[in-house]
Amino acid sequence: MAAGKVGTGGPGGPGGAEEPRIGVFVCHCGLNIAGVVDVEEVTEYAKKLPGVVYATHYRYMCADPGQKLIKDAIKEYKLNRVVVAACSPRLHEPTFRRCVAEAGLNPYLFEMANIREHCSWCHPHEPEKATEKAKDIVKMAVAKARLLAPLEPIKVPVTKDALVIGGGIAGINAALALAEAGYKVYLVDRYESIGGKMAMLDKTFPTLDCSICIEGPLMVDVARHPNITLITYAEVKEVEGYVGNFKVKILKKPRYVIEEKCTGCGECAAVCPVEIPNDWDMFLGVRKAIDVPFPQAVPLVYRIDRDHCIECYKCVEACGPREAIDFSQQPEEMELKVGAIIVATGYDIYLPYDDPRYGYGKYDNVITALEMERLHIASGPTRGQVVRASDGRVPESIAFITCVGSRDVNKYPYCSGICCMYTLKNAILFKEKYPDKEVYIIYMDMRTPFKGFEEFYRRARELGIMFIRGRPSRIVEDPKTKNLIIKVEDTLTGQILNLEVEMVVLSTAAIPAKGSDELARKLNISVDATGFFMESHPKLKPVDSPTDGIFLAGCCQGPKDIPYSVSQGAAAAARAMSILSKDEWVIEPIVAVVDPEKCRNTKAKCGICASKCPYGAIEVEEGQPARVVPAKCHGCGTCVAECPADAITQMHFTDAQIFAQIWAALEENPEDKILAFCCNWCSYAGADLAGTSRFEYPTNVRIIRVMCSGRVDRDFVLEAFRRGAGMVLVAACHLPYDCHYISGNWHMTERMKALRKVLEKIGISPERFVVEYISAAEGDKFAKLITSMAETMRRLGRERIIAENEKARPFLERMVGRKVKELEPLIRPSG
Question: CA separation (Å) from 684 to 84, 90, 117, 636, 652?
């Protein structure tokens, strides 16, 4: 990786071989900019800025003639830095980087000044003030451009194999999609067989297809596919590495049956004298101490339950010359090298033992919906007959209760999404099998949003199933009949009902799979407040995890139905292929870099940077400087802001570059200005949207873009006030889970809470320092916030702001003076 010198401008800048030769290109954007901003005046102003040797303006800089103008100027005027004053960098920064690269200039020696979204579009009725603001924006861009370093993208080789963790319907589809595309796939499942929850179901809604009839052939395809290695009854033990280069240790538990020798004949189970409860049947049925969980298991390899085996060795005798039984088997550790990982670990079902309202675990005839599935299914414990546990007969009446645990602030506040539909399915199956029985559905709200769902609901009503809207307050059992009395208010009629039925089926919440937290730590990915794995972005990257190269599919990311899970499996496979299809994976070089001479860890135990990194990209060994793994670093800059020794910098967003922007923004009339630090993905985008939407607000805000609010060092805020800023804004993604860098906004929030107390102690009015959370969709909120802050400044008055700054300056000098002295030779133009 070539990343330039830490804290310098690199070659062609301060500390480099040449003085900067900056070209400034001001775009009219038709009349979008030029209709408000005096582009000629801005161009003439740019010509006088330090380091600028050429400046011009043109109608459309992004068009081919505009790009040719830039390329020609680079060659003619020997430009080694380029600033384009036009639209948002979120729109055309890649365009202009390619443009300067085609002219032979390193693409990271380009900077963009946003004078459309942040100026002309949001100040259309104040052309003079908008023009002055545009000058400041250009000046800030030029100040940063002087210190830009040539960077080279980080390239890492890609291992062409993939790992899929979890063999449910989502994992199966992901594995098959990858294998069919020609990639080697390891499919790991912690259970004895693949299939997941779908293999436990009788029918699927809304079509009532046989579940195993649909999934079974896919399970067999997985086992037979030459590109898939199936590793069942195994767990992920450890994960190291980064995108394209993961090393994964798998712990394969012993079956005490040799997989290669087992033919799945079942003769061993036939002679085994020990019966144990079968977890596959939700413990409603039994299996042998050597058995498979269900007849369609894949792989069809038997396992001995050593906790219940009496070691009679009848299975050994039955197996005979095949010699597949091996009581000496030990856990086996495997190491895999893969380029991408798909997590498809599914979900678990909430068992409401802890909720006394429903009597689950107390009353024999209260069961869960998944237990009902096992009663319905022909190969289940009752051979397809729905019978009561108390007396073994078909119930004359049955009530299905939805949202047990779901939509409950005391349990699981989210909607599980599938409960309404699988309640309808189980009710319809029961009613069609036993048409003379009474069937009730007690529901909170009936949610039927997708294809065929509403028709399925109508089908239930037409069959005579009775619906009661409400949430039961209590279920009690008649000790003689074992019938159940449900106390519930029908919210549609206002009646309090005491409904007596012979069986109750609870549609319980879908909850995160057991071990999700532990797996998240191993993979260095996050879980949300509900415990499901968190996607990188709910709209733009719904199957990406925040860690590059790791993708999510199915219910591990949140409850969803079978078609949605299948779609996510295919989507995750496609995303994984975007990595596996390349020989090298290119990473943007805006990563953190450690200066080993400054790192405190060489003299005393520190490791603060490693503890704050959301991606585990920093390695710290005792007595050694911290080391950033570039391929794992996402460039949020959180570690840079947290380092107490200023030993880390973020390339392209160095302290020197940001200080230079602060100085440029506050060079004139600082007490009249709001200096805003905005994160690229949310609050900066929100400011863009304010402009796009033509929301107007005062012209006195100057925005500095950082990739993540986690990059905002307290020294930036202190320096802004030392330079006389009227107000300072730090704008971030919303808490708790909107940060594009997992937890950067949390770290910023804690840092700024502590800083706020310091500022108040030295005499800065608390309302002059604002931390706010703004999404990319909240342009209106951004405009209103700036309007409110401007009004606060007006109310405080210019004289008071100046007085507070003067009083605080000695303290501010002590706090940031050392850094200012260190950076000043880099920022100030030579000569």
Answer: 18, 9, 10, 15, 17
Angle at 130 between CA 129 and CA 131, to 5 degrees: 90
- Ramachandran region of residue 566, left (φ > 0), alpha (ψ -120 to 50) or beta? alpha
pLDDT in tens, 19-37: 999 999 999 999 999 999 9
Give the model's pLDDT for residue 609: 96
Q: CA 437, CA 387: separation in Å to the nearest integer?
A: 13
Q: 717-753, pLDDT tens digit by residue?
A: 999 999 999 999 999 999 987 888 889 999 999 999 9
Helix axes 744-761, 714-722, angle to 10 degrees: 40
Q: pLDDT of 585-615, one tens digit each?
A: 998 999 999 999 999 999 999 999 999 998 8
Residue 415 tokens, joined: 């909607």
**Range with the poorest average pLDDT among 294-308, 519-533, 710-724:** 519-533
Q: What does pTM read for this prediction?
A: 0.77
Structure token pair of residue 323: 């010699």
Lowest mean pLDDT among 13-22, 628-637, 654-663, 719-728: 13-22
DSSP character at residue 558: S
**Residue pointed to by tokens 């599935």:** 373
**CB–CB of 610/618 below 8 Å?**
yes
- Average pLDDT for residues 461-479, to the nearest whole number? 96
Cα–Cα nearest to 71, from 45, 50, 97, 48? 97
CB 471, CB 488: distance < 8 Å:
yes
Residue type, 297: A
d(CA 726, CA 801): 6
Taking the C-alpha atoms of residue 812 and residue 329, their distance in angstroms, rounded to an integer, is 68
Looking at residue 755, its pLDDT comes to 97
- Distance from C-alpha of 555 to C-alpha of 166, rounded to nearest angstrom: 11
pLDDT at 526 over 90: no
3-state DSSP of 115-158:
CHHHHHCCCCCCHHHHHHHHHHHHHHHHHHHCCCCCCCCEEEEC
Q: Provide CB contacts within 8 A for 556, sequence distance 6+.
A: 166, 170, 343, 344, 345, 346, 347, 512, 513, 516, 532, 533
Q: How far apart are CA 402 and CA 446, in angstroms?
A: 9
Instruction: For residue 720, give the nearest of 781, 673, 685 by alpha carbon.
Output: 673
CA distance 362 to 382: 21
Contact in structure between 172 and 178 (CB atoms under 8 Å)? no
Dist. CA 492–CA 537, nearest whole Å: 39
DSSP 8-state code for residue 734: P
Q: Is the dihedral of CA 8, 12, 14, 18 positive or negative?
A: positive
Smallest CA-to-CA distance from 122 within 63, 135, 776, 114 is with 114
472: alpha, beta or left? (left if phi > 0; alpha if psi -120 to 50) = beta
Mean pLDDT of 95-113: 97
Chain mean position to CA 221: 31
Q: pLDDT tens digit string along 413-443? A: 999 999 999 999 999 999 999 999 999 999 9
H or E element, residue 91 = helix 89-102
